[in-house]
Amino acid sequence: MSLDQVQADYSSDALEAYFGTSLSVADPDVAALVVSERTRQKQHIELIASENVVSRAVLEAQGSVFSNKTVEGYPGARYHGGAEIADTLETLGTRRACELFNAAEANLQPHSGSQANLAVFSALLDPFDSVLALDLKCGGHLSHGAKANISGKLFTIHAYGLRPDTGFIDLDQVAEAARIHRPKLIVAGGSSYPRALDLKAFRQIADDVGAYLLVDMAHFAGLVAGGVLDNPVDYADVVTTTTYKSLRGARGGMILWNRDDLTRRLRAAVFPGVQGSPLLNMMAAKAVGLGEALQPSFRRYAEQVQLNARALAGQLLADGLSVVTHGTDTPLMLVDLTDLDFDGQTASDKLAAIGITCNKNLIPNDPRSPAKTSGLRFGVSAMTSRGMVEKEARRIGTWIADCLLGRITSHQMIHRDVLALARRFEFY
Ligand code: DSN
Question: Is the Cβ atom of 191 under 6 angstroms away from ligand 1?
Fold first, then answer.
């Protein structure tokens, strides 16, 4: 490359183009994918329990100039200069999180729920320490000690399960396993357990054996924020959550706690323990989402999420499908397909063909592999954000049941109906 060419790259025209060209002009390939994804989201009924639809304000904050800033450490004690505004942002977001969940302390830096859990494990435990958590096969989460996850490699994991007669957490088993294994940490919460946790019972069991209690409320944090479910912060030593499921904010994780004596360890476990610089654009968007969740209207949203979840689960049952625990208290539910002659992957493909998006999921004691599964998980946070209520939840439930139970004569016709419903609930 000649010197002339290098200098040309720094001409005022080149700089203006670099800073001023929109995505559609600068990179039509990626721009086209963004448009396609937006269209896909609008034209489908989204029932993946870990998804939601964020506000325009959250999107705007994610795409803000905070994307350019690197900071390490915490407000007032950073390693990089120019952090004054970042400090104000992180302090604002943290204050909102504490107010929303009535917590003394919050850490908004985790990039995800799994990072938040890893930080808590490393703050409270030494390698090989014993942990008691809900079995992944019974609705637990990878980051709670699955063999394939770092949490399962570093710590000694014992699992508890569900009552075979009800599908609810077997608290007797939790208490017995705690007595036998004397875990240093008990974890409650998971990724496909549809029922409210008995927080008081978990607290008691943890106290009986001198264990820390961690509640991972990722899937139901929005219902806690909206006052629909009890607040785990009142019971647990530490609470983790993602910010983007029922909480309807930016992608990322968060840690909340009340105990002063854990503050130094938890903060150090996030940075420098498992992360470097937080993603400040996501921090800004988290702050916006938390601000939205503090508005009175969020309470109404959270109530509607639970109403919709119950309406959908009720309709699936009424229309002949088997729902684990026969219902839900949270935004999610699990359909058991063992009576049908196809697996979760096939079931999810069938629903995708009529415009309904969900995910295959292991059911308790699933005979199939995680790649196939015998279940489907549905969540209603996203459809509720679009304005759908029980009437639509019931209609969707009937479409799902008709599709899975082979009661559809024309897939095309039902897909047209799904599309028409999706169009009635436009967004962006
Ligand atoms: N934990 C995964 C889920 O529940 O889908 C991703 O957030």
Answer: yes
Residues of the chain with CATH 3.40.640.10: 62-293
pLDDT single digits (tens) 69-104: 999 999 999 999 999 999 999 999 999 999 999 999
pTM passes above 0.90: yes
Instruction: Give the right CATH number for 62-293 from 3.40.640.10, 3.30.420.10, 3.90.640.10, 3.40.50.720.
Output: 3.40.640.10
Residue 71: both structure tokens together = 């900071």
pLDDT for res 8: 64
**pLDDT value of residue 410:** 87
Q: What pLDDT does residue 6 have?
A: 55
* Ligand 1: residue whose CA is nearest its atom 6: 50
Residue ranges for the chain with pLDDT beneath 50: none
Domain with CATH 3.90.1150.10 in the chain: 301-424
Which atom from ligand 1 is nearest to the alpha carbon of 244? 7
For residues 32-69, one letter each, b for 16 or more C-beta atoms within 10 angstroms of the residue's C-beta and e for the rest, the string is eeeeeeeeebbebbbbbbbbbbbbeebeebbeeebeeb
Rounded to an integer, what distance in angstroms lies between the CA atom of residue 241 and that of residue 218?
4
Q: What distance in Å separates the CA atoms of residue 258 and residue 147, rounded to the nearest whole number?
A: 30
Q: Which of 254, 252, 248 is nearest to 216 (CA)?
A: 254
Altogether, the residues listed in the chain come to a count of 428
- Which ranges in 340-380 belong to alpha helices (H)? 344-353
Fold classification of 301-424 is Aspartate Aminotransferase, domain 1 (3.90.1150)
Ligand 1 pocket test, candidate residues 144, 149, 245, most atoms within 8 A of CB: 245
Contact status, residue 115 vs residue 274, Cβ threshold 8 Å: yes
274 three-state secondary structure = helix
Contact 86, 73 (CB under 8 A): no
pLDDT, residue 409, reads: 85
Q: What is the pLDDT of residues 204-230, one digit of tens each?
A: 999 999 999 999 999 999 999 999 999
